Amino acid sequence: MDTSSFDLCRTFSKDELQRIIQSASRQQQQQKQQKRQKHAKQKQPEDHPLLIVSQEQRIDGLAIKYRERLQALLQTSGYKNSQDGASTVVTAIESIDSLDQFTLLLTGISEIGAEFESQATAAAAAAADGCSGEQRQEMIVRSAWQALVYGVFDQEMLQRVGQWMFASATCIAFMLCKIRCGQLLPEDMANGVDADVVARLHRYHAISGGRPVIIALEQQPAGDISDNIIVAQNFQALCSDICRDTKTRPAFTNRFARGCQALTKMHGLRYTKKAILGAVNQLVHILVQRQAGQWETPRLQILQDIVSQTASTIDAFLLRADEQAPQVHQTVEHSARQELLQKVSEQRTMELFSIIIDFPSSTAAITDLRTCVSALNNMHQVAESLKTAVQTRLLHPAATTNDILMQYISAIRCLRLLDPTGTVLEIVAQPIRQYLRQRDDTVSCIVQDMVSEESELFEDLASGSLILDNDPEGVVYDEDYATRDWQPLPIEARNVFHTAQRRDADVLGLLVSVFDSKDVFVQEFETYLARSLLRHMEYDKAREIRQVEMMKLRFGDRALEKCEVMLKDLAESKRTDQLIAEAAGDQMWDLPLHAVVVSRQFWAAAPVEKFVMPREMAEMKEKYAGVYESIRPARKLEWRDSLGQVRLTVQLADRAVDVAATPAQAAVLMAFGADGMPSSRLTVAELAEQLECSEDFVLPRLRFWQSQGVLREVSPGAFEPIEHQELHSHGGEKETGDEDDSDSYSDPGDAHVDSNSSRTETLRMHFNYIVGMLTNIGPLPLDRIHSMLGMFIPGDTTTIDELRGFLALMVREDRLELSGGTYRLK
Amino acid sequence: MSAQAGAPLDAAVAKRLQNELMTLMMANLSGISAFPSSDNMLNWAGTIEGAEGTVYEGLKYKLSLSFPADYPFTAPTIKFDTPCWHPNVDERGNICLDILKEKWSAIYNVQTILLSLQTLLGDPNVSSPLNGPAAQLWENQDEYKRVLLKHYKEHAQ
């Protein structure tokens, strides 16, 4: 195929063409004679009249006859059998002597095709298949080509012929090249072909690997195309075809270089430079595009190799072709490398957000980008682009705080690798940090992540240095820094120190510095610790002790004094409890109650929920308190009934259920068994009355038991125990089987050891300030109020979230009004 | 931020103003109020309302208070931002009040200044007027009030 195409392209001058046609017809005559002899031996099929053609007829108007007969045959037979048609066409083609005949024949075929389109198409395809001999194929192509050139067909026919005849890759490529070079057809025709056929041509062209195109280019007569831009564009397009379909590098570079060479020969170096540059850029563009999403291995080096190799191949022949070559080469190689860096940088910048998500498996992509950026010095664009991506893709209400934190952590690690100076991180992190500050649960998410032993933050907690509080000047400076781009910082030592502090901070340090004060974290940790200490009634708290020790490493001993006291309270309680147990044992009491005695000032305030304890539990409390007061005279126990845990075995008619519940949950359930009426039915209102609490208090607890399969709601607001499971197996199983479900009914009193109420009181004192600023300055947004409070009230540590909560409260109390994001006085 | 904008703020001045702010905020007096208007402690915005029983009752005026760097040894500059038709206030809002000029003393503070201004509204010094027509009309309280309200309506709202 390659040889034939090569010949085909090379023998394009008129003389050569004639010579080949002549030799081809000689060969065909010989073949025909052989065939006729064969036919003479075999039995001639009746329905192939075309074959019975005399030698004389062939000389004059043979093709016309063929055409007529063909038409007649096809029309009468309806051309049902495409195999017949195919062989007919093949025979017809075999019988052709001259170009003119073939042209006529083609016309005939296309005319037929117009009527019997599908059959004719099939026939033509079959004919093309049948024409496997090189000579014949060449003949067909050339004839078709001439037919096209002479404008035998109208446009529609041309397209049809194009569809029929150009199934061969060689022909296609050849045609494509001609069409692209604008040589083939009058303008309108070229357009017509372009639109429909060229797309198809492209596809076929792939089969031949682009080689014929280059050969054709090489054969292009010089100097007859005035518009170099069109040539350059065509060449670029061809190159992109080549790039797209070439798997192996050497083959590609060779072809590419040959294309350049051909182009040079055609137009001289002067015109070629632009085309080659354009083509190289095109090549780079496509190469880089292919790397999209491939982040696991370094790509830049490979791409650079390809581009360099191509450039050097071009160089090798350009050097021979023209003495200006070195200069051209330099430009080509330089521009190609620049283009490559630029494109890779663009590509990776575009993907950076996703790369960060994939980090660390995408480390290679980061390394590549880093190389590009250090060469192009475009770090700022990268940062801005990522910042935009972050703002649109991450910082919106649909993203959970944990997701944002994970992405931020990943970005910290990733961007430190990309830019060790930390500038990009500063720019990108600024909106994230600002956004995180607005989220209510940021602190608690961080704290929970920090103390869970499998997280990365836990390692940071263990390894990093002491976290200092931000000083306010430094925070201001941060924002300046983000806009100050790359400049080395001509600023006072203090600011540099702060930068260094920020730059060297580990992930945990950075997260903590999202908030102006580390105190919020300590407070959150205190709340967390209180909750976790009180949740399970065990005195052994190795895990919590470890957490506190870890926290001390990062936050300093003094910050965690409260936590120390909490742990000490626990240890103390354990000893006390043992003493009480001994005392109870002496009295032969069964006292399955263990208390944690805490120092009120050091524990986050627990919400006080009033309800009547079941008699059994109340008695236990009394006994316990009695013993305690005898052991620790001058002290009195004040119980927090809503905290703690009760292990219950619920004895129902057909089964026993073991449940760990809160005292409130236990109290609600035990109300059902009170007064020796085990299976009573109670309404929410009755329960509320019995427990001396609100219905809102009762209902969630009832739901808890419902989810445990112990109670069921017989009518809205009325509950009764499920004594026989099988009777209610449907509802019971469903609910008990669903762990998450029961979580969602977990006791509200359980989770909230609350430090909010005291803050609210502090904030009430600040309300005058808020009124002052709103009176005199006018409506203000939350962050301005927050920053003003921080600025004008000495020692104020209100967080923006506390403030938001407080202002919301003030809005509810009708003292403020929130509209359009700003608060105003009522 | 504050350190970069304008003259450096002396820590003592800042502290004094911070304390004055706290005094003012905690006193929570009706009809007078002021607050730093920006991050800069030296520029405040104030609001006074005319005292009950005077012609200025129910009228609200915005003020700007600008403290010098050597406050409290020099008086702050105080102007009406809301146009105020008053014998001792000129049309650009400048105020003629002795304690803001020659009788200034470091023992005055924002709260006393604001109270003085509130008093001045209802009790002008007609003998040294900045606004002649107002001073002349002061005797005729009904007519004064009519002109005042007309002025307030036109300019202040």
TrEMBL record, chain A:
The keyword Acetylation does not apply. Residues 22-51, 727-758 are annotated as: Disordered. Residues 33-42 have a biased composition (Basic residues). SMART domains: APC2, CULLIN. Residues 470-706 form the Cullin family profile domain. Residues 22-32 have a biased composition (Low complexity). InterPro entries: ANAPC2, ANAPC2_C, Cullin-like_AB, Cullin_homology, Cullin_homology_sf, TPR_ANAPC2, WH-like_DNA-bd_sf, WH_DNA-bd_sf. The keyword Transit peptide does not apply. GO terms for cellular component: anaphase-promoting complex. Keywords: Cell cycle, Cell division, Mitosis, Ubl conjugation pathway. GO terms for biological process: cell division; metaphase/anaphase transition of mitotic cell cycle; protein K11-linked ubiquitination; ubiquitin-dependent protein catabolic process. Belongs to the cullin family. This is Anaphase-promoting complex subunit 2. The gene is ANAPC2.
From TrEMBL, chain B:
It comes from Coemansia asiatica. Residues 12-157 form the UBC core domain. SUPFAM superfamilies: UBC-like. Its EC number is 2.3.2.23. InterPro entries: Ub_conjugating_enzyme, UBC, UBQ-conjugating_AS, UBQ-conjugating_enzyme/RWD. The active site is at C96 (glycyl thioester intermediate). The lineage of its organism: Eukaryota, Fungi, Fungi incertae sedis, Zoopagomycota, Kickxellomycotina. The gene is UBE2C. Keywords: Acyltransferase, ATP-binding, Nucleotide-binding, Transferase, Ubl conjugation pathway. CDD domains: UBCc_UBE2C. It holds the Pfam family UQ_con. One of its GO terms (molecular function) is ubiquitin conjugating enzyme activity. It is an enzyme of class 2 (transferase). Belongs to the ubiquitin-conjugating enzyme family. This is Ubiquitin-conjugating enzyme E2 C.
